[in-house]
Structures are given as C-alpha cells and as structure tokens.
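Table 4 source record.
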Amino acid sequence: MDMKTSATTGRAWAIVATLVLATAGVASAQAQTIEQGLLQLEWGDPAPAPPGQARAKSRFNAHLVKDDGSRIALDPVQARRAAGDLYVLANRRVAVAFGATGKAMSAAPSIEAIVPADRTAQSAQASAVTARVAAAAPINGVTRWVTVMCKFSDIATEQMALPFFQSQYGEGVGQLGHYWREVSYNKINLTGSSAYGWFDLSQPRSYYITQENGKDKADLRKLFADCGAAADPTVDFASVQGVNMMFNGDLDGYAWGGGSCAPLEGRASLCTRVTWNPPWSFSNLAPLAHEMGHGYGLPHSDNSDGDDDTYDNPWDVMSDGWSNVVRDATYGARPKHINIFQRHRLSWVDAARQQVLTLGDIATRQIALDYAHLAGSSNVQMLVLSLSPQADPYATVVYTLEARKREGAYEGSLAGDAVIIHKIQASGTAYSVDADVPPANTSNNEGSMFKVGERWLTPEGTHAVTVTAQTPTGFLLTVGPPRVMSSPNPPLLKPGGTSASSTPSTTGTQVEVGRTRTPAAGRCPTSGVAREGCAIRER
C-alpha cells in the first residue's frame, strides 16, 4: 500500500509516517492514539419540500467501526479535513490518528489523520499537481443488491407488492440494472439482485424513530439489525454487496444511504452497503439510485450559489434528483447520470478518455469533448484543468469539463446540450460553475451551460476555454492561454445573465458571489487577471 496517496493536511507526510511506525509498534509522540477499523459513512437526504417551503438540510454521520464491534463517532468536519478526501475511504479499513484531548476532560480528541489501512489499490497516485485526478479504489463487475421490505408492527400498509421491487432491478430501459450499466459504461452490473418481503418487525415505528433536540431521529443500526434479522432465514446476506431496505412508514423525514453492520448469517457483525428507504423514496428510482450511490461511496455534488442547500445541481443525481428528470409511469422520477468526476471516483472513466492540463501547460490545442453518456467513445470525455499545485495534494483545486446532451431514457429532460464545468474542492465536492451574477439557485440556467461561441477562463488566468463547435458526438473546444481581444467592442454578457444591473459596467469593480469573485454586472475583463465565471462571446 502506498501511504503517500492518502497524504492530506499540511503536515500529513509526518503524520502518515507516524501511523506507519505506530502500526509497527513504535511509540508515537505526535499522535496519542491510533485506532483501526472500518470507515462507515451515512448520508441522510430529506423528502422534497412542499411548494413554498424550504427543503431540510442534509445529514451526515461518520463512524469508525473497530474489530470488536464498538463504534467511534467521528466529527464530520475534522474527519473531512484529516482525510483530504474522506469519501474515497468509505467502506474501507482505515487507521485514524487521534491527538490529545482538550483541556476539559470531556473534550473529544482531535482527529489528526485518516489513511487507508487495507491493501486495495487506487487507480492513480496523488501528486501535488494532479491530486484530484487520482481516483478511488475501483468498483467493477457484479455488485449484487438485495431488497428487504419490512413493516413496522403498528403499520399494516404495504405500498408496493414484491413484483414491483423485483422489477426495479431489471435490465430494461428505466430499471436499475439498465441504469447502472449505462452510467458506469458497463463497468458494473446488478446481476443476481433480488427482492424479498414483506417481513414483520416486532416493534412499532416509535421504537426506531425517537426525538433528539425536538426532531425525529432514526436509529439506523436498530432498523438494519431488526429488518435484517427478520429476513435472515430467507435472504443470503453473505453473497450480496448491498442491501436496500424498504419500510412501510416514514423514518425521520429522510432516506439514508451508506454503510452499516448487523449480526447476520451467524456472524457477530456483517458489514455492507446499506440504504434505508421510506415510501416516498422507493416509489421513485431517482432517490433510490441516489442512496445506492451513497452506498458506493459517492458524496453529494453542489452548485456555486454559496448557500447550504446541496440539492441544487440538476446535472448530477447525487445532488438534485428531482429537477429536469424523465418521468416513468411505473418507477416515478428516473435518475439522471452522475457528473464525470463522480464517475471517475469509482474508476469508470478510462484513462484514454481523460485529458489533464496542468498549470504550466500553455499550449493552444483543440479538444474533441464527447458527450459523457456515450459508451465506447474514442475522444476525451473528462477534461481536467489544474490550478496551482499545493503542498497538500488534496488542497489542489481542479476543474472538470464534460459534455452533456438532452436525450435518452435518463438525460432526456436536462436543461440543454452544453459543456458543464465543475470545480472540485472542499474534500472532493464537485460544484457546478455558473457564469451568471449572482449564480442561480438551481444550476439549470443558461449561466451553467457553456455553448458554442462562449468562453470561460480559469481563476488564475492560465487557461481560456472556448466552445467552438458542436459535433455529432459532443463539442469541439479550443483551450489555451488567454489572449487580449483585438476587437474594440467590449465582450457581451453570456445570455441568460441574472446580474442585478443590465447596464454593463466599465469600472471592473469586483463583487463577492458565493465562493468566488466575479466581475460586477457580468463583465469579463479584456486584460489583467481573468476571473472565474467569465463567459463571453467574442464579436
């Protein structure tokens, strides 16, 4: 195992060396405690909000499950910082270095580093220049899931019959088997997946759903343990790679996905990918696919409006699964594809389909960028522009560019045909780039779609990307260093702009927008430092 691939914080190299020494039995002066176990992550996704109401915030839990079955809750903020990209370690054996406790005896120890402790190979090595291009451990081949339907003892309703759940795994268009083959470029399949139930739980809903700080809280471990136990005589849990649980009543207002353990198959603890689905989730394939994505270790994506709503990027089912969706008479909202970086996380984008341009690469080139949904493409499908390399590889910011087309069983209701740009930062989260000022609340606007004749510049002004033509299989891009425009006329604002003023400003004044700084009134400077979000048409 190459421990360097997991270096994360500013002093990660020293901490990783400490972990290696500690594992070998050498005393550590830098980290008081080294714990090893399985890293389990759980994402909670709220039900869609009624019209006029704000959607609830997402929830996230992280635990280290030790070999004796005990669990250590990990502070999510610290865990993300300590791991660099926490999500690539989901469902894997890790070593966690804890620092000294705070002055108060009750203060929890800080998390200094989280590194892989298994021998699973990553598909690429992290470096200060291209850290974000290093994918996680690959997920390939058969990933067999089993659906287990469980009824609370005080709720008799069975919303759907067994044949419905069995058919969800089918290979027909609009079914999960077909979807995951398509989105993974045939890298994975759900062969052998099946459904069982309904099974009766011995306890009412109130036993599993309690109150904490005035809010419902589902006991996910109890739900898995009891639902699994009810199905254990019928289901071979040892042969599956994931469990989709369906409950006949609401949980805590959320559907959940990630990993969990339960005493099954005669084992004290069987650990696997797990989802927890109330009726509103299993009645639509989009939220169910979203939770399965969490089971595979995929995090949420986001847009660039700067708010705390992660469900506003409709270019990825791992963000907004409800907007711009194809509707199915049987399975409700169909899932859209995931963005190209999410595909790359799971090693589904072949090396020949990737092109990385580092900060110092200033050559001008034309790149044929094929639509991301095309299997068997012979051109680039993931273009990566890297910014200034950082000492901590995972602090290096990169941008990914992909082409999307409004067609097909899953992508047929997208906002349009366009090049979509994502900024990868903040522990590996992908934020869609929006050239409008201010950014739209949901990134299905024109500012988030880069079309023929439009240009975008990286924040450091090292690369300009011009969409020069649309081809039968995607778009043709010209990528190179920015040039001073020869036209005496000022650049035009990208169509669909939502800036507060429709009158172009010539002052170049900068205003704060979300996480970036963009020229006021939507203007891109014709000289000086280029600004992120500039998208212009040259006359």
